[in-house]
Write a structure and sequence with these properties.
There is one protein chain. By secondary structure, the protein is mainly beta. It has one domain. About 10% of the residues lie in helices and about 65% in strands. The protein is built from 2 helices and 11 strands, in the order ααβββββββββββ. The longest helix is centred in the N-terminal third of the chain and has 18 residues.
Length: about 260
């Protein structure tokens, strides 16, 4: 018995040493502790948000024509440009395929900017220029329905956007007394107009996803409302007359905004 115990101890220590030298037969380390996989954040879903920024409006005073028994008149005008502020809200939906994001957005904006201009009537038949007409034009409200197409890089979405827009246009003209014999309106008299016009909007932006639900964005939009016509009624030479003048309207807007994505 005294000889067996030492022999067992030697065998046991030899077996343990050999077992330590054998390769591990467990699961690979890569399976036990997999590497983290980096994926693009999800932009898919409905969202809503607010925006505010700066706007620049341009009104190009176009030519207008009047014809009556007294003569034929043409409006000669320049262009006006002014800057102001804008703000509004947006609501949209995004779909996502890998790093490509596409969707649609509806927005509504209020603009706080007036464009002032001057124009004069010219009587072609009698070769007489009128006293000037002072104008004030603004686009107080705009709404657009735009498509969006973008590409995701990390937490950032770069996109382009465009679509139809509807704008409310307000215009007011006042007769200036330049001490000439020919005035289209009575001195100090005003004609006011308001109409809705269909146009288009295009632009681009960048949006950064702070969390799964909140994102910040910067955006530029250019809007064109075509050449709406405004109808005047006046009394040149004491005879009632009327005619149309076309005004070409543009607007550029740069805005900052925040969006909240639902379902997060």
């Amino acid at each position: 018995m005294t000889k067996i115990l030492p022999l067992l101890a030697v065998l046991l220590s030899t077996g343990l040493a050999q077992a330590a030298d054998l390769p591990s037969r467990g699961l690979p380390a890569s399976v036990l502790a997999p590497e983290s996989v980096v994926t693009s954040p999800s932009w898919a879903g409905f969202y809503a948000g607010l925006n505010f920024g700066a706007v620049r409006a341009d009104a190009l005073e176009g030519r207008g024509y009047w014809i009556d028994k007294a003569g034929t008149y043409v409006t000669i005008g320049g262009s006006g440009r002014s800057g102001g502020a804008s703000g509004g809200f947006q609501f949209g939906y995004n779909a996502q395929m890998n790093q490509i994001v596409y969707g649609v957005e509806l927005d509504a904006l209020l603009n706080f900017v007036d464009v002032n201009g001057l124009a004069a009537q010219y009587d072609i038949k009698n070769n007489v220029a009128s006293d000037r007409l002072k104008s004030r034009t603004n686009i107080p409200a705009l709404t657009s329905l735009r498509g969006r197409l973008g590409y995701v890089v990390g937490q950032t979405l770069f996109y382009v956007t465009g679509g139809p827009t509807v704008g409310l246009i307000r215009r007011e003209v006042t007769q200036v007394d330049d001490n000439k014999d020919y005035q289209w309106l009575a001195a100090g008299e005003r004609n006011s107009f308001s109409k809705t016009r269909l146009g288009w909007t295009a632009g681009a932006g960048v949006e950064y996803q702070m969390t799964g639900a909140l994102s910040l964005r910067a955006q530029y939009l250019f809007t064109g409302l075509g050449r709406p016509a405004f109808h005047y009624v006046g009394y040149p030479y004491g005879v009632i007359d009327q005619g149309d003048q076309h005004i070409r309207l543009y607007q550029s807007a740069v805005s900052l905004g925040v969006n909240y994505k639902f379902g997060q």
